Amino acid sequence: MKQSHIFPVIAGETPFLTRIQQLHNRGNNALRALTAAEIEQLERQSNVCSNWNAVRVRANFDPARVHQNYFAGRVVLGAFDATAESPHSGVVASTLINCEVGDNAVIHRCPLITGYVIADGALVWASSLVFRGRSCFGNGVQISAGIETGGRDIALLAELDMPTVEEVLGNRADHALQNAYRQAAERYSTACSAESGCVEAGARIENSRRVENSWIGAGSHICGAERISNCSVLSSADEPTHIGGGAIVEESLVQHGARVDSQAIVQRSLIMEYATVERQAKVKQSVIGPNAVLGEGEISASCVGPFTGMQHQSLLIAAFWPTGRGILGSGANVGSNHTSRVPDQEIWPAEGMFFGLDCVIKFPAEYRSAAYSIVASGVTTLPQRVSFPFSLIVEPHEVIEGVSPSFNRLIPAWGLRRNPYALLRNQLKYQRRNRARRHRFDFGFLRDDIVAMMTEAVRRLESITSPQRYYLEEQIEGIGANVVFEKDRVEAIKTYGYFIDYAHCLERARQMQQRLVRDAEPILPQDLADRDLLLRLSRMNVDFEQAVTAARERDSARGSRIIGDYSLTHPCLEDDDVVRHCAAETKRRNAEIAELLRYLDNSRS
Q1: Which three-class secondary structure state does DSSP give residue 204?
Q2: What pLDDT, on a 0 to 100 scale, did the predictor assign at position 25?
Q3: Which residue among 154, 170, 173, 228 is least enclosed by CB atoms within 10 Å?
């Protein structure tokens, strides 16, 4: 049975579960009752309590920083003194019922705090915290991330990673795996169950209307949130999590460094590390991968992978997209299963897919083998499977007799041939934006799995023995509800072949550099035979740099033709960050190749 590396983790002890256990096991040995003098001072300071005998304090408690409060039930107060870290520590003008306040915490002007443990150094200011009954803090919530009506179900857990989510959602026929996950999730959720909420050390909750039955992690910043209910917010001092600006987060899990802000709504979802949901975006019953940035759009019943971007009122429904790295352009409607039929259809986008402005994607749709493909602006696609990476789907430039006018034109390998600048730009963008510590990424777009897609695409394109003007799905599998013209087929075979060779040469050079130069292993006959491969790679590196530069030059030339002062308001080619990086990378790679060639030549002599 294939298993993610996190299965043993969620089945045993984890950092989050350990902290919850510490909450359960907290001792009361260092607590004492209030003295008569302390009760008298507290009452002089306008504190009210129906039963002072139920109040317990730390050994070095000083009532001087406790004013104008109402206490009820069992209340624990820590020691408060002015420090540089917490100059305003103490409890002022608040209502505390059945809760505990740690040393040097700050509780100011809170209408109600009940059922919570406020850890040392935490701050709660003008906010209400309510805990009733028991809670698993959103852990164990069942959602269907991929099909709205159910079928790709998963129990959400606070410490899930994307590989685990992908395995569970994508391998429904593996009953052993599904059972193993179900049992692990049940154990995890049970271990999360508690009878009080927690605000961990150093967390800040300010001007937030209601935090209910939730765990607020250390160092997190909750500022101006409208409502947080039945949630786990994982955080630490060096990876603070932020929720604020009128945000609503319900029955959800928010991981380290994530951000939910500016009236965003998150319901029954998992927001992974360093993802952002902002600007009134809505996320419902979904898993959002690391470093994703979602604003002003809506995602429902979906699994969305890392680095995905959403803009301006775009829509994504019932998508299984664990590889992510794509873009939903303004107005993109990737959710056209809301027709007169049952909304039980789905879409599987590929890594790096770009859905253009106002495109409409009809379901069901499967693009997993069309990595880094583009659906052009305004295009409406029919239900289909497309299996050609780096493709462009555009409206047809002509009416073809006998072909449905709803069919689009598919141009395989277009991104490699015409727009390598964008591919390299995205690769650099994701590398620079990555802050995740619990996920590992290979940012290259010529990885083995993508090269395998290209190799399979070439096989299908070359299966044509009698060329004709255009082809449909019946002639070339994987075209989908599109047309591929002969000239595009020929160019695609050539382009795919070139980049398959380029990827092979890059990998071979990397292996030789590692083995011969870094590890100082002996030279093999195959190494000497690959001297011509290295020379070819050196030329290919230069060719790729020139292709990236040419793609950028085309954009600049078009802009200059249209905008009068374009050259004054846009960076010149020499200052373009992507072009400069590509030039530097070409220089570095070719220097390594020259070193390898000298090494091989010296061995001959």
Answers
A1: strand
A2: 83
A3: 173
Instruction: Give yes or no for a cis peptide into 364 (omega within 30° of 0).
Output: yes
Closest among 94, 105, 93, 49 to 74, alpha carbons compared: 49
The torsion angle over the Cα atoms of residues 454, 542, 443 and 412, rounded to 10 degrees, is: -30
Give which of 149, 169, 150, 152 is closest to 343, Cα–Cα: 149
Q: How far apart are alpha carbons 285 and 267 in whole angstroms? A: 6
Interior CA angle at 326 toward 276 and 304, to 5°? 55
From CA 113, how far away is CA 184, in angstroms rounded?
33
Check if the beta carbon of residue 523 is closer than 8 Å to that of residue 600: yes
Distance CA 365, CA 319 (A): 9
Q: Which residues pair with 306 in a beta bridge?
A: none
Q: Which residue type sits at 454?
A: M
pLDDT in tens, 319-365: 999 999 999 999 999 986 556 667 889 999 999 999 999 999 999 99
Tokens of residue 231, six digits = 């949630």
Q: What tokens appear for 292 in the block?
A: 């994703």
Residue listed under structure tokens 């947080």:
228
Residue in 156, 132, 129, 158 with CA at minimum distance from that of residue 144:
156
Helices (H) and strands (E) in the chain, counts: 13, 49
Q: What are phi and psi of 249, to 5 degrees?
A: -130, 120
pLDDT value at 517 more than 90: no
> Which amino acid is located at 105 in the chain?
A
* pTM reported for the whole predicted model: 0.95
Please say whether the beta carbons of 419 and 412 come within 8 A: no
> Which residues are within 8 A (CB) of 341 and not within 5 positions of it... i.e. 6 or more apart?
none
Return d(Cα 563, Cα 294) in angstroms, integer: 31
Whether 6 has a pLDDT exceeding 60, the answer reads no
Q: How far apart are CA 284 and CA 299, in angstroms?
A: 6
How far is residue 160's CA from residue 234's CA, in Å, rounded to a whole number? 12
Provide the residue count of the chain: 605
Q: Check residue 13 and give its pLDDT.
A: 78
Map tokens 């049940």 to a residue. 186
Report how far apart, in Å, the C-alpha atoms of 10 and of each of 130, 139, 159, 192, 269 are: 28, 12, 8, 11, 18
What is the rounded end-to-end Cα distance, in angstroms, of the chain?
A: 53
Alpha-carbon distance 46 to 66, whole Å? 9
Q: What angle, 0 to 180 degrees and rounded to 10, lies between the N-to-C axes of helices 175-192 and 162-170?
A: 130
Whole-number pLDDT of residue 337? 53
Q: For the segment 352-365, what is each residue's pLDDT rounded down to a tens digit?
A: 999 999 999 999 99
Question: Would you say residue 12 has pLDDT above 80?
Answer: no
CA–CA dist 441, 429 (Å, integer): 13
- Cα–Cα dist 344/341, whole Å: 8
How far are the Cα atoms of 281, 433, 538 from residue 307, in angstroms, in the given order? 16, 8, 32
Q: Provide the pLDDT for residue 24.
A: 80
